[in-house]
Amino acid sequence: MKKGLLTVLVALSALFAVFGLSKETASASEPNYTITSDATYAPFDFQDKNNQYIGIDQDLLKAIAKAAGFTVTVKPMAFNAAMQSVASSQADGVIAGTTITNERKAVYDFSDPYYKTGIAWATAKNSKIKSLSDLKGKTVALKTGTAGAEYAESIKDQYGFKITYFSDSDTVYRDVINGNSVATFADMPVLQYTIKNGTALKVQNSKDPFAAGDLGFAVKKGQNAELLADFNKGLAIIKKNGTYDKIINKYLDAKAETFTGSAKDNSTVWGILKTNRSAFWSGLKQTMYLTVVGIILASLWGLLLGVMGVSKNAFVRGLSTTVIYIFRGMPMLVLAFFLYIGIPALLGTKISAWSAGILTLVLNEGAYTGAFVRGGFQSVDSGQMEAARSLGLSHGQAMRKVIIPQGLRLMVPSFINQFIITLKDTSLLSAIGILELTQTGTLIVTRNSQGFRVWAIVAMIYLVVITLLTWFSNWVEKRMNA
Any idea which GO molecular function terms this record carries (predicted)? Predict the structure, then answer.
């Protein structure tokens, strides 16, 4: 058992050491900073038809870094995760269409404002709602953490509407279009861009935005003063030489298809699949990589927990039961955030998104594996142990040579089934910035607003892979029982 535990720990340590290494290194003369950003907030932050991260924020950041003499490594993820990554010192700064507010100033230090925006509200194109008073008793959809959400929250009691929250913009728009909610609030440029891109919404106050505010680049309060000074320096330079205006006009004046691809390509499932085939393939590879590595390590960890669960030692059995209980009972998304954001904030250290993602899979899937492994060993007839002991085998020898081989034979279908479950569970890791298949779909939808078609493609890819794994499971089970 000690050797098995040592093997698992060594494997985990080696894996995390590999994943923890930075893929990019800065030159000795230019500091390199890790910057987080929202991945789904066009036209500020999104992915173009060539799968490159672009937008007002991204282009400004590149121009500012070049002007001020530093380099950046951008980590796109969900808005709240991007902000929390900076607050927990996982990243050096964040640029994500972030409105400067007094509440945020308590946690972050902000740059000079780089964009002034206002809040717009929009309804479905054919909606009969014309004024804020018409919202009384109805539901408004909001993206968490945005200036639009903050403004809507401030007036909801005045106008008597209810609020529902989502983590990405496209889901917000679809909720309004489908009639589950009647309106949404967001930055004016964001709503104007998505409508230009074909989303069936209508801005109700295009000539009179609410609560004009400033967007700023943010760092953790009291830290990275040099980065903040460099950002301000670069911002001043690009405003003076005209680069700033070129970037803003590039996104606010251009036709949406400049970044999304032609309307013809986005009008059919085949067109979307053909245009984005490299992105889908890359997302699928990442998903399979996460699944394979996760299931191998989770199986090792689960086997160890299962063996511990049938130990003669009461303490070891209790330890196994406790570990299985904790990690089976904790939602995977909560565990991922705890590992990626919570622990670094507590310990003042960093852990890469890959390491946090793999560890999440290992702990969660390993707990389920440990439970059925323990059950598999216990399902072997007790007479087998008695017969082995009567032949002079010790308890440990009987386990290794009699019980474990028979138990593993019974568990093969469960192992394959857990592989399928792990494949599906990798989609939750998109929340901490891992670009797997589900996150790939989210990025494509943000760009082209074709939610139904894109998610149909993603669903079919998952279904094909899971069908192949199911056939493999049935084949293995038949061979084992032959």
Answer: ligand-gated monoatomic ion channel activity
Q: For the stretch 261-288, what's the b/e string if a residue is b when 16 or more beta carbons lie within 10 angstroms of its beta carbon?
A: beeebbeeeebbbebbeebbebbbebbe
DSSP state of 465: H
Nearest to 93 by CA among 232, 229, 221, 217: 217
Q: Write the pLDDT tens digit of every residue in 378-417.
A: 777 777 777 777 777 876 777 777 777 777 777 777 888 8
Residue ranges in 160-276 assigned as alpha helix (H)? 169-177, 188-196, 225-241, 243-253, 257-260, 269-275
Nearest in space to 174 (alpha carbons), one of 454, 449, 441, 458: 449
Q: Which pTM does this prediction carry?
A: 0.76
Domains of the chain (ranges; CATH) run: 31-114+216-260 (3.40.190.10), 116-212 (3.40.190.10), 275-481 (1.10.3720.10)
Return the DSSP state at 28: T
Reading phi first (left if > 0) and then psi (alpha if -120 to 50, else beta), residue 224 is in left
Q: In what order do the strands lie in the sheet with 108-110?
A: 71-77, 32-38, 93-94, 218-220, 108-110
CA dist., res. 105 & res. 426, Å (int): 34
| Helical packing angle, 451-481 and 404-425, nearest 10° | 170
Angle at 309 between CA 303 and CA 315, to 5 degrees: 130
- DSSP 8-state class, residue 131: S
